[in-house]
């Protein structure tokens, strides 16, 4: 749940406000992993308890948001969701 002055909020509204995000399985192309833009959760195509392999991404897959942060901030950032 998002709270005022949440430590994860560091000006992401400048590039993520109003974006459409899709839940995607991470497939390595340019890098072997990504991080959530808010909490820095590692997103990677690997089976490990500390790593997730699905997250919400922008269409160009440049920005990734873990499911927890997506649910916490979707209303604040007015995100659309692509199926």
Which properties best describe this structure?
single chain; 83 residues; globular; 2 helices; alpha+beta
Per-chain topology:
Elements: H1 13-16, E1 20-25, E2 33-35, E3 42-44, E4 54-57, E5 64-65, H2 67-73, E6 80-82
Parallel strand pairs: 1-6
Antiparallel strand pairs: 1-4, 2-3, 4-5
Name the poorly predicted regions. Answer: none
- The overall pLDDT average reads 92
The succession of helices and strands, N to C, reads HEEEEEHE
Read across the widest sheet, the strand sequence of neighbours is: 5-4-1-6
The radius of gyration over CA amounts to 12 Å
Measured as a percent range, the helix fraction is 10-25%
Number of domains: 1
Tell me the structural class: alpha+beta
Number of helices: 2
What is the count of β-strands?
Answer: 6
Quote the distance from N terminus to C terminus. Answer: 23 Å
Largest sheet: 4 strands, mixed
Strand content: 25-35%
In short:
With 83 residues, this protein is of the alpha+beta class.
Structure commentary:
By secondary structure, the chain is an alpha+beta fold. It has one domain. The protein contains 2 helices and 6 strands. A 4-stranded mixed beta sheet has the order 5-4-1-6. The radius of gyration is 12 Å and the shape is globular.
